[in-house]
Amino acid sequence: MVFTDIATRTYNHNWRLDPIVRSLLDTDFYKLLMLQMIWRLYPDVEVTFQIINRSRSVRLADSIDEGELRAQLNHARSLCFAKKELIWLAGNSFYGKTQMFSPDFIAWLADFRLPDYELSRADGEYQLRFTGPWTHATMWEIPALTIINELRSRAAMKDRGRFALDVLYARAKAKLWEKVERLSRLPDLVISDFGTRRRHGFLWQRWCVEALKEGLGHRFIGSSNVLLAMDADLEAIGTNAHELPMVLGALADSDEALAATPYRVLQDWRALYGGNLLVVLPDAFGTAAFLRDAPDWVADWTGFRPDSMPPIEGGEQIIRWWRDKGRDPRTKLLIFSDGMDVDAIEQTYRHFEGQVRMSFGWGTNLTNDFRQCAPFPGDGLDPISLVCKVVEANGRPAVKLSDNPEKATGNVAEIARYLRVFGDTGRKQAPVTV
Amino acid sequence: MVFTDIATRTYNHNWRLDPIVRSLLDTDFYKLLMLQMIWRLYPDVEVTFQIINRSRSVRLADSIDEGELRAQLNHARSLCFAKKELIWLAGNSFYGKTQMFSPDFIAWLADFRLPDYELSRADGEYQLRFTGPWTHATMWEIPALTIINELRSRAAMKDRGRFALDVLYARAKAKLWEKVERLSRLPDLVISDFGTRRRHGFLWQRWCVEALKEGLGHRFIGSSNVLLAMDADLEAIGTNAHELPMVLGALADSDEALAATPYRVLQDWRALYGGNLLVVLPDAFGTAAFLRDAPDWVADWTGFRPDSMPPIEGGEQIIRWWRDKGRDPRTKLLIFSDGMDVDAIEQTYRHFEGQVRMSFGWGTNLTNDFRQCAPFPGDGLDPISLVCKVVEANGRPAVKLSDNPEKATGNVAEIARYLRVFGDTGRKQAPVTV
C-alpha cells in the first residue's frame, strides 16, 4: 500500500520558506567565545563584514535567486536565542569549564538579533555586506555563509528527479563512510567537525556528525556547530579567528602598535579564557613574522592552529620554534584545520605521531564533498572558497596577509604597509580550493 | 513514484525494542519537586510502590505480553539523566523561580537510576512492585504507568491495517480539535496538560500538547511532562501528590501524630517551596476532616487542588472554608484536575467565574480519548483507571482514604484505624472511570 501523510504533504507544498538557519546557535562555537570578548572589551567598535568569493570561476548570482537569498537572510534576522538555548549556554561546561559565558553576557544575548544587511548585484556576483557594532556584525559570518552555500546546493539539485537525488546521497554517504573507516584505523586520532560554514546543507552536516559519532567513537571529540553540539550532547569545539587581529590591526594607530597587535590579541584572550582555549592562530600577518617577534610567554600557551601553510611544513616550523624556546613539543598541541581531508590527515598524523599532541578540525571535505557523487552533470555541488571577512573597523581598512597570498584580503595600499611592518618571510603562493 | 527509505525501513523491522520511555525527564514535574523534598528530608525511608488497576473488568495480562513488559521496564532502568537535561533543570526557571533545584540535588540526580522491580502474574493480572529507598522507588510511578498504558494501546492496535490506523488517528485528532475549539471560547481559561500517566502513547501526548499550544495560545500554560516542557519551551506544571501524606501517615507512631500528618506535610513543603507551589492537596484522608482540623495558616496558602470530589461541590466547600477563615477567595487559586473533560471544564469555569482564580489540569481525557474513534471493534483503546501507589513505608502499611471510597487504598484494618482518626464526614461513593 502506498501511504501518504496528506497533511504533511500539503503543508510542505505550501511552505513560504524552508529556512536554512533555524537557530542562532547554528553557528561556530568560536563566534560565541569571540563575541563575549568583543562585548566585554570592544563594545564600541563599528565594523563591516563582507562576503568574498575566492572561487572566481563561479558567479553566485547566476545560480542563486536574489529573492530567495533575501528571504533567507530576513528569516535569520527574525531569530533570537531560545530560552532553552541560553540555559544550555549558561549551564553547560565547555572545555571542562563551567560558566564559560558570564551571566551578564547571557542576559545580553537574550535580546540579540542579527543587524541589517546590504545586498546588491553586479556582473553575476552578489555584494553582501554587514555593517554595525562589532558585537552584531560578527554574528553574520556563519549564517551568511551557510545560507549562500545551501542556496547554491539547492539550486544545483532543483528539478532533479527523486531517484537521482537518492543516488546522489547514497554515493555521498558511501564516500563519507569510507573516509570514516580509514580514519578509524588511526588509534589516537583526535578529530572534530569544523564543517558548518561550507556545508552542503544543515541536514547533511547533521548526518555527517552522526556518522562520525557512530564510526569514530572516542576519536570524535565534538563539533564546532553549537546547535549540533547541544542537540547531540557533544563537546562544542573552537577557539578564535583572524577577525581579532584584523580588527585590532585596523584600529592600531601606528606601525609600532600594528606590529604589537598579534600579541595584544593573545593578552585580551588570556584575560577571559585559559587551558585548551589558549591556542594561537599565528598566520594573520604571516607565521614567520609572528614567531620571530613573539614574546617568550607565547610559548607557554597550550598550542597553535596553523591555518594557511601545508600542515607538515607549518607544524614543523612551530615545533622548531617551541624547541628554540626550550619547550617540549610533546606537551603541546597543534590543531590542523585548513582544507584537511583523509589523505592529509593520515600523512600529518603519521608524520607528527609521538612528537606533539594533535587535533584535527575537519571542514569542507567532511560536510561538502559531493565530488563524483551526482548522477547528473554540472559543478554546482562542488564546494567553493567562500569567506565572510571583516573589511573595515571604525572606518579603517582591515587586512589579512596570511601565509598564502591567495588568502590575503584588504586593499592594495594597506597590504603594502602591513608587508613593510611584518615582512614577507615564509609567505608562499598556493592554490586555494576550499 | 513510490519512494521507500530502505535503510530506515530495514532498521525499523529489525528493532529489538521501540522504547516507550526514552528519558527520565519523561515524567511529571511534581515527581521532581517531591523528589527533592524526599531527598533532603527523608533520605532513609524505604517504601514500596505498587501498580493498582482499578478497572476490574480489564485484565492486563490478557493483552500485555510479559516479555515486552519486562523489556520496557528494563529499558527504563538503563536510562540516566542526560547532561543537557540536568543543565536545563539547573538553569531553567520554574514557577518564576530560578534554581528551583539546588546544585547538590542536581549533582545527585546525575547518578540516578531506577531501582529494580518485582513482576509476577496471577489470574490474568500483573503484580508489579517497586521497593527501595523512597528517593528511588517514587520515580517509578510515571514510567511504570506510561509503559503499561502504551503497551495496552499497542496491543489493541496490533495487526490492524495501516488504513484503519490512519482513520483512527484522524478521528482522534478531529475529536481533540473540537474540544480545543470549545475551550478557546473561554476567554480567561488557564489550562495545562496533566495527561502523561494515562496517555495513549508518547507521540500522541506530544501531538496533543502541540495542538493545545497552537489552538489555545496563552490559555495553555504548560505541561506536567518535564520532557515535553523542555523540548517545547513550555512551563513545567505540578506541585505534589498523595504519596507525601501517605508515607508520613504510615511513619506516624501514634494516632495523634497521624492526625497531624496532613499539616506536617505542608510544613515540610513550605520549607522548600513558595508562591504558586503552595497548593494544598486536601483529600488524602478526607477533605472535610482536613479543613475541620486545619490550622489558620493553611488558609494563607495560594490554593487547593480538590482531587476526588465533583469539582463544583469540592470547590464550593473550599471557598466556604476560606470565607470562614476571613480570606477573600478571589485572591485564591483552585486547581481542578480530577477526571476533567470539556463539559466539566466549561461548567466549572462558568460556575466559579469571578469568585476564585482557577486553573485546570487536563489529563486522561486529553491524552487518551479514543472513544468512538477506532474503525475496528474492541475496548482496548478505552482508558483504564490505573494508578501506582505507595503501599508501605519502612515496613508499615500506607493508606489513602480519599473523598471517594472507590479511590481508597490500603489494608482493611488500617483503613478502619484511619477512619477512626479522621472520621468519615463528607466521603461519598462515586464511580471512577479514569
UniProtKB/TrEMBL annotation, chains A, B:
User: What residue stretches are annotated with the Nicotinate phosphoribosyltransferase N-terminal domain?
Assistant: 25-149
- Which Pfam families has this protein been placed in? NAPRTase, NAPRTase_N
Reply yes or no: does the keyword Repeat apply.
Answer: no
A single MF term (Gene Ontology): glycosyltransferase activity
Keyword annotations of the record? Glycosyltransferase, Ligase, Phosphoprotein, Pyridine nucleotide biosynthesis, Transferase
Q: For the modification Phosphohistidine, which residues carry it?
A: 242
Q: Specify the enzyme's EC class, one word.
A: ligase
In its UniProt entry, what is this protein called? Nicotinate phosphoribosyltransferase
Q: Name the gene for this chain.
A: pncB
